[in-house]
Amino acid sequence: MRIDLHTHSTASDGTDTPAELVRNAAAAGLDVVALTDHDTTRGYAEAIAALPAGLTLVTGAELSCRYEGVGLHMLAYLFDPEEPALLAERELVRDDRVPRARAMVGKLQDLGVPVTWEQVARIAGDGSVGRPHVAEAMVELGVVPDVSAAFTEEWLADGGRAHVDKHELDPIDAIRLVKAAGGVTVFAHPAALKRGECVPESAIAALADAGLDGIEVDHMDHDEPTRARLRGLAKELGLLTTGSSDYHGARKTIGLGDFTTDPEIYGEITRRATGAFPVPGAGGRR
Fold this sequence. Notes:
By secondary structure, the protein is of the alpha/beta class. Helix content is 38%, strand content 15%.
């Protein structure tokens, strides 16, 4: 089995619609794909309706969190999307995205970048607007060569000149909320230093004590020594280890299935989940 547990669609900051994403996942030879858009479940219905035969969909989300001043992302799998407490927190994060993006546009304008809100809104379309959409606007204007180049201290990285904070969950609260909604939690790319400051390993231990299920180890932003270190830490803390592409379509060079999760780990994730269940493809519709 080939299993990719971290992908994004146009429901947040990917470039594939949910329907395109599941069709592309099947074409890439995946058996299982997780849809984990940022702080939203809006892509579920379209993805399920288009799900090809032979492909299983894991519903999920990537939750925006902050631990002692450091941003991090928590992958949540197979939770009940209508559970009230978790839904309320996702809506708080989502509702903060537009004023935050507008504020970043204002900061960029103050720095002499002629970006406009209308440009960013056009790029975001129906998705949950975020920094990648602002970054893409900067690429269009020739300010940076690619989206990754906008995520530096000069521009949009945490603490950067044009960065603006947003509402984010405490990750221990996120773990509690996801568990209460029947879901499973995995700390996404925990040592991706190229994205900015990362929490120390002691924080991962604290999250494990709070009920964290696993950490994402095999990821494009982790080199081999980092992966080896994280595997050792996971073994020490009793955490599951996953591998995923973090696919965003054309916004990143990574392809679907470039990193995958061991089938036994996937089986354990599904065993622990009680809020929702993987959806087997039934042929879908175009």
